[in-house]
Amino acid sequence: MEIHETIWEGDYADREPFLHAINEINSIEESVLVGLNLWWSDYPYDLRIFAQTVISRESDDKFRAAHKKINYLMSECQARQRTDITLEQLQQAVGQRQMNSVGAILGTPVSDPCRFPTRKELIPKGYDPQDWTAKSRVFLSHQNERKEEVIDLQGYLAGSDIPTWIDVHDIDYGQNLAVAVQEGIAQSSIVIFWVSEKFLKSNWCQVEFEGFLGRYSGRRDVTILTAVERGCIDQLPPLLQGLKYLELDSPGDPRKVAKEFAPAIRRALTGPLDKGWQNP
């Protein structure tokens, strides 16, 4: 018999729609749906749930109808087709006690096999499993000659409950620098340009400037704050000259920068911050 096998991954934490889709699939005619298996991991550090659908190709019309229905149901529950995982890998994972598996009895309702409760079950018990991480950050753009000052600035902003992106902490060893910087730009709705002599000559700083300039000119979804050392004011790009900036005596005072910019940052970030500026 010629068959078509597909492996799907659902969301373990919100698996109710996935299991509902599985039960809908399990109503497909037995001569067409020849296999339906669940694979899941209750290992706390790797909670996963998969389904393997196996349909017969004996009848082209029935195959196409079943294939269409399965794809539709899995799309509706936002399951992801895993073409990178094979049946052999899943079987090996069971042998290594990484996964559990059960075969569905065709036409019989499939119950939830997972050990840990879903988000929906946890909420009435007082848990609120929402994403509490910062939705946006303040990108600290600078040249290495001001690294010490900007690290200090990051500490002052953190003390005022302001989330930041800074290369020394947010780019890991071995990570592609260009990719990491673009990700940081995408995650940030505010940028602080600390403009020094070497900043204006730095290729990396130019990349960061152009990245935020593109967003500012196009979507206007970014707030640009500039701290500029007095000897560099005349060399500022036209865009930055047109925006109110903070003048600094070289090499600049991180505490002053944080204190001056904190109110504007709070207004720009989504949602109020609970803590005001904290004097060190």
UniProtKB/TrEMBL annotation:
SUPFAM superfamilies listed in its UniProt record: Toll/Interleukin receptor TIR domain (SSF52200)
Species assigned in the record: Gordonia alkaliphila
InterPro entries with a match to the protein in the record: TIR_dom (IPR000157), Toll_tir_struct_dom_sf (IPR035897)
One matching Pfam family: TIR_2
Protein's recorded name: TIR domain-containing protein
Coiled-coil intervals: none
Residue ranges of domain TIR in the record: 132-269
Domain of life: Bacteria
Classification via Gene3D superfamilies: Toll/interleukin-1 receptor homology (TIR) domain
